[in-house]
Amino acid sequence: MTGARPAPEAKEALRERYEAVIGLEVHAQLKTASKIFCGCSTRFGAAPNTQVCPVCLGLPGVLPVLNERAVAFAVMTGLAVGATIHPRSVFARKNYFYPDLPKGYQISQYDRPLCEGGAVEILVGDLVKRIGLVRIHLEEDAGKSLHPEGREGIVTTRVDLNRAGVPLIEIVSQPDLRSGVEAYRYLTKLKQILVYLDVCDGNMEEGSLRCDANVSVRPRGTEAFGTKTEIKNLNSFRYVEKAIHYEIDRQIGVIESGGRVVQETLLWDSARSVAETMRSKEEAHDYRYFPEPDLLPLDLDPAWVGSLRASLPELPDALRERLVRDQGVPEYDAEVLTETRSLATYFEETAARSGQPKLASNWIMTELNAVRNRTGQSIEEFPIRPDRLGALIAMVAKGTVSGKIAKQVFERMLSEPDGPEAIVAKHGLLPIDDEAALLALAREVIAANPGPAAEFRAGKEKTFAFLVGQAMKQSRGRAHPEKLQAALRAALGGAG
Amino acid sequence: MPIDANTVRKIAALARLRIDPGEEGRYVSELASILTYVEQLQPLDVSSIEPTSTVVEGPPTPLRPDRIVPCEVREEALEQAPEREGDYFRVPRVV
Amino acid sequence: MSDALTDRTAESIAAAVRGGEASAEEVARAFLARADRTSKRLGSFLHRTPEQAIASARAIDARRAKGERLGALAGVPVALKDNICTRGVPTTCGSRILEGYRPPYDAHVVERLRAADAVFVGKTNCDEFAMGSSTENSAYFPTRNPWDLARVPGGSSGGSAAAVAAREAALALGSDTGGSVRQPAAFCGVYGLKPTYGAVSRYGLVAFASSLDQIGPFARTARDTALLYDAIQGRDERDMTSRPEARPVSLDALEQGVRGLTLGVPRDLLAAEGVAPEIRERFEVASRAFADAGAKIVDVALPHAQYAIATYYLIAPAEASSNLARYDGVRYGLRVPDLDLATMYEATRGQGFGREVKRRILLGTYALSAGYYDAYYLGAQRVRTLIRRDFTEALRSADVLFFPVTPTTAFGIGEKVDDPLAMYLNDIYSIPASLAGVPALSFPAGFGPTGLPIGLQLVGRPFAEETLLRIARAAEAWGDATTRAPAIAREGAA
Ligand SMILES: [Mg+2]
Ligand SMILES: [Zn+2]
Fold first, then answer.
1. pTM of the model
2. CA neighbours closer than 13 Å in the CB half-sphere of residue C217
């Protein structure tokens, strides 16, 4: 698996001459309370082998009973990506031996999956690209094999079956992706859809989302696919991108040095950023799939599917378009604001409360996100809720407070529970527009700056701006700009 | 001979079954005679016939509501294990 | 007195216990005493549970003393085939690979029988993982036929059939995948019912071939068979293949006789060579008797039944090869230690499974493997469809089908062990109904010239178990088929 690697400087040029063809297989863990075929909890991180029963332990004599919500979640995902939901699908046994596979087979779906077709749209540059889907099918997860590292002479593996039988959907894409970046976008979008649907928590660290990549390259402009390799163990979106780049360059290197890419399964080593052979084509498994006789074919009631369709939440694309159309926020803002459903909701409430969608979007994307980036708070945890932020933005819009003051109020609201009006009052942040007060202020400034005042009187107009600045400073930015200027001119003129 | 020793070895490996070399010949001939017998199905033209994977007919069986059913089986299960390490099942190192 | 008790039907025992005429404990002791005399020589039990039996019998008596209403099987001693899971009681399926294994849960049928106040007397011997027709494939010891200890009791539920014939238990459960209840019932001269697929929950039955397996009752009379069937049938939400269409049999309905019923006889199947004359003769005698009793006898055709054995020996081993993959030495049962995982698997399974099981795992793995699936497994599933259609068709013109259970009476121990195919060919009459999933009953129809029992078979429409038992019940009047006991069941009788 050590193909000649092209020199870095040559890479870009070579990449231009080749086109990568990439398809992804994503396993997403469904957010059900119980496992797919038994009543055990799916909670992550429980003590080893505490969430097991005779069924998921694969004891002799047990039988699987299908979890209705797992089916509902898979159907919802299919509907969300515009897939065909088959009224009849069939579970099949995938036979292979592994210590964390209790029955010696995985119950999955094979030639008759639940969903086929559909697509996910991603943004490439500024144009939308459709990534087609081959299928979405239901299956059970395996347990966990732990290989304690570090200690000398470790010759055993430990098996924890808490995860065995947790419901998964496998989402298989068409080979429509052309780069690691596109793969990254596709995964981000897929995760966004699953999280909007609330069928998967999208947590990669806990393995709720796992990805295998099929990669091949071909000379640009040719149709025929090159020999593909499969990369496994890609447990973060960044690794997917990295591993794909690595593999594209490796395959190009092999071809450029006159070799042939061999079909094999590679394992990504994130520590060393290399992919190494796990299994050659010859060692490929013979899974001996056959229809699972313990489960009848899965027949869906069209009315039930209809009710699931009706219950689908608004999805990211639709929401983004609506924000642009109805709230008049720019495409880019809409993209950012719809990253999560909760951020979008925060925006919509703030916009409603303030009546100022554009201002609301600006505030959220600048002030609010700046604080969140600093503190790492989720939008749910953010101390200023839409009602207070909306009220503040409304004050700015009315001119009750200047943008400068508003930022001070915002900062105070982070630590103080009061609404913006209360904070303005409490900390004397109200603007000064009373003539007498402003005249007094003007006289103070003139007295404090006899030189500039004299110069002005002598006709040096530009010193006026300096005096206004001084007065504004004195008022800590609260003085009403026009009225202050009037007061100053009056004071300068009067004291003649 | 519809099946040879080599094939039997391959299947045995797939099924994780150790066959003593001394017994191999016997399995080959027994499987051969059975496979020869089942050859009688080959002449039947069933290409247009739906396969039967279950004989169950009628309304679909209701699915299971997504409810957690606690089960205190861990200790009883681990006690059955040929080898355990704490609360884990223990197997030879997976390489 | 005690032998008088063991000769009584389950129905009369339950009545006696409910009515206080006999205590559950004395009933249990009577049957346990019988088994003490005979079970070792018969090899009928793998694990006997006398202490638990006495304990539960006493508990039943105590509840009666408190005036509690007792169940339909009050105090009736029941034996369970060793592939039916019993919490804390060894369940080995007659295999080394499960030696000493104690399930942490009870099978559905065990829960139901306990609820009916039955008393469990032990786990019966069987062919390893129910694979066989003689109980010679038990990894522990063979079971012998109570009518002739030199002969097999049939299989794979040979221990259950022998235990009931020898009065070691009033009732027993077995499992039938291709005839494993009906054939031993015929060899041992007792009733054996394979219910409609889906009538009895398989939860807790160790799987052999999931699309064929059904738990079935053994008893000495039609009414007792109904009593046991009623206790275990019905929908169970732990088995997605268990069906709501299942319904209990009414004991009164069994008394209606055969008048007005049509019995279809598949002549082509009977023409098969190798059918012993005494079997043909018994069959003809019985059909004449049914006709005299007012039944209509018609000819029917099962044109594809001739392919049943070939079909079965592709489908059943294929499913078995997958069902038996869980015996890998990781979580329970035998492990042959090794530092290398693959070697541990192969050594454990190589040593833990017997020859017949290995043979079928190899056959099934082959039938499912790349390049052979379509020709073998899928092809067999298509032929299975044709066989099912034959039955549906035949059961339109007839209420039930009527033909033998086996081509011969019980054969000698060791006679067929070296020729697996010859052993398989004996299932010619039992396998077709298994593939079709329809109910089939083996009932005692008398004895051959050498005094060996002969069973005949009734096959019905889905969930028509009642009709089968009703017809067999009528036949009980014609002879001593259900009253004659093997000599061994008389030994030491007062
Ligand atoms: Mg998968
Ligand atoms: Zn479980």
1. 0.93
2. 30
